[in-house]
Amino acid sequence: MSESISYFNVKTPNNPLEESIKSYKVIVETPYTLTVEELNKQSLAEFEVEKANFAQVLKDSKAEFEERLAGHDEDVAKAEARYDKEMKNFKALTLFERLSLTEQGKKPQLKVPSKPTYVEPREPVYMQPNLDDHLIFDNQVLADNVELMGYEKGSDLLIVINISKMVFQDNGGQTFYAQPTNLKVMKGATVIDEKNFDEEFQFLTSSNSNTINLERYEKNNVNKIMNHISNYINEEFGFIPVQSSITIEFPKNKKRKYDILENAKIKAISAYRKLKKDVSGETRQRAIDELIAVREIWKSELAKIDYANKKALMNKEVAVMIFYNLLQVDISLKDKVQAEETLALLQERRIDLDLNNGEKSAFTRLEEQVYKL
Q1: For position 133, what pLDDT does the model report?
Q2: What is the pLDDT of residue 324?
Q3: Which residue ranges in the chain fall short of pLDDT 70?
Q4: Residue ranges of the chain that CATH labels 3.30.160
Q5: Are strands 174-178 and 202-205 parallel, antiparallel or unpaired?
């Protein structure tokens, strides 16, 4: 019999922090001071000016229309005169020349200007400004969105992010940018790590900078930088959760003869259930300790196996289950030493176990995982 359980393992960081560090604090500094309230106030003020000027805009548009309408007859007369002159010159050409120009689409045509029509300007309507088009950032919100996985918010570690203004550069009709950003990871006054992002100019778009929405590009880039920094600090120092699953094998226990193994299975499943994506480091360690204790139970039960007697309570079929569980737990705990020890014991008993093809394949896959630890 078997029971499967999904859990979250963790990827070991490239540069694990000292064990004394349990928490972190993030500070983000940016040059952006505009707030939503200020933007709305400015937008409303501009709307009031536009609304106050609307009567004049309407008056000017009507005057412009009347002027264009008054000049329409003169424009038509000029077009007709130009056409008459072009046709006179065209008719003076030879037949061959006229045919050639006609084939090229160059025969004179009368193009009379259309009569102007009046389109009244629309009365101003207030619209909320699109925040995506404005450089509005709350430094505290940016800081709160940075998560160092496996640690809690506190003060043991200080992460300081300093973002500068985006600089644009045109080159050959294309736009390039740089936005130097400095990251410092500190314990007290000691700098543990420092890294710069986006300090070199790089390609942004195939359009000139005067044809694009610079603020939107800059806003998107700030968010991109923050994502890059989050990924970096977690790769270096965090414990990134990775979804995994495990299957625990156990014998039928109808007559309560395998209570020890069933209890071990229950404890193992319970420990893995604790390993959730957002579990604290303390809870994760408690679950690991529980799995280590279960592993000792399995090792103790493995010593009771009678490999020669198929009818024995603790026979080789039970041994296969225990070996399978031990290797899986060793691998999930990334315990290379213990996994190699279990594997060596398995190899010693390989003949006694008399594995079938399916079992051989399963143990081969586990063996390959042990070598990758």
Answers
A1: 85
A2: 97
A3: none
A4: 23-34+135-236
A5: antiparallel
Q: What is the distance between the alpha carbons of residues 187 and 148, in angstroms, rounded to a whole number?
A: 15
pLDDT at 60 (0 to 100): 93
Is 228 in contact with 197 (CB distance < 8 Å)? yes
CA dist., res. 51 & res. 288, Å (int): 68
- The pLDDT of residue 236 is 97
Hey, what are 237's tokens?
A: 């120092």
Of residues 187, 188, 184, the one with CA closest to residue 197: 184
pLDDT of residue 147: 95
Residue 247: in which H helix or E strand, if any? strand 240-249
pLDDT of residue 46: 93
> In sequence order, what are the beta bridge partners of 247?
4
Tokens 């790089």, located at residue:
202
The CATH number of the domain covering residues in 23-34+135-236: 3.30.160
Q: CB within 8 A of 274, min separation 6: which ones?
A: 283, 284, 286, 287, 290
Tokens describing residue 90: 């065209």
Residues 241 and 277: their CA atoms lie apart, in Å, by 6
| Rg value, the chain, Cα | 38
